[in-house]
């Protein structure tokens, strides 16, 4: 059970992540009441609610994923905050469990806009750097 209705989630998704449709020409795919994928030929952004917490992930797909595999780079899905911290290590951010979906979605969409433009356009040349930074934080 979630603390947000499917109608409200739908509205907030379009409000805060609609820029993916308008500016980057993503296609929106509804997976279930509280889960969407935004996709281009090269990038998938997944957004869903789990245990009353908003999660937003990013992954290379299609030809971009194949290119990474050829270089032995795993095209796995990562949270957008993990991606942003891989590009900007001094970014101070922590997921707040049970945070209201509205504020979490607003922040996650801003992180996408501020730090993930290359990936949103399908340019994954820095993906290995993100994975290395992620693995070094462990």
Describe the protein in words.
The chain is α+β, with helices and mostly antiparallel strands and 138 residues long. The protein contains six helices and five strands. A five-stranded antiparallel beta sheet has the order 1-2-3-4-5. Strand 1 and strand 2 form a beta hairpin. Helix 1 packs parallel to helix 4, helix 3 packs parallel to helix 4 and helix 3 crosses helix 6. The termini are far apart. 28% of the residues are buried.
What's the SSE blueprint?
Blueprint lengths: L5 H17 L4 E6 L2 E5 L3 E8 L2 E8 L1 H9 L7 E2 H8 L13 H15 L1 H4 L6 H10 L2
Antiparallel strand pairs: 1-2, 2-3, 3-4, 4-5
Concise overview:
With 138 residues, the protein is an alpha+beta fold. It contains six helices and five strands.
Give the mean pLDDT. Answer: 91
Order of helices and strands: HEEEEHEHHHH
Question: What portion of the residues fall into strands of 2 or more residues?
Answer: 15-25%
Task: Kindly state the number of beta strands.
Answer: 5
Main sheet: strand order:
1-2-3-4-5
End-to-end span in angstroms? 32 Å
């Amino acid at each position: 059970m979630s603390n947000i209705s499917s109608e409200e989630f739908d509205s907030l998704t379009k409000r805060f992540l609609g820029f993916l449709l308008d500016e980057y020409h993503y296609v929106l795919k509804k997976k279930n009441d509280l889960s969407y994928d935004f996709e281009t030929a090269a990038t998938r952004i997944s957004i869903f609610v789990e245990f009353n917490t908003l999660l937003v992930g990013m992954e290379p797909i299609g030809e971009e994923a194949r290119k990474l595999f050829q270089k032995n780079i795993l095209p796995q899905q990562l949270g957008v905050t993990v991606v942003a911290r891989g590009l900007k290590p001094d970014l101070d951010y922590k997921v707040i469990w049970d945070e209201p979906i509205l504020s979490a979605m607003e922040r996650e969409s801003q992180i996408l806009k501020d730090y993930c433009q290359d990936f949103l356009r399908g340019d994954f040349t820095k993906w290995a750097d993100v994975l290395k930074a992620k693995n070094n934080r462990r």
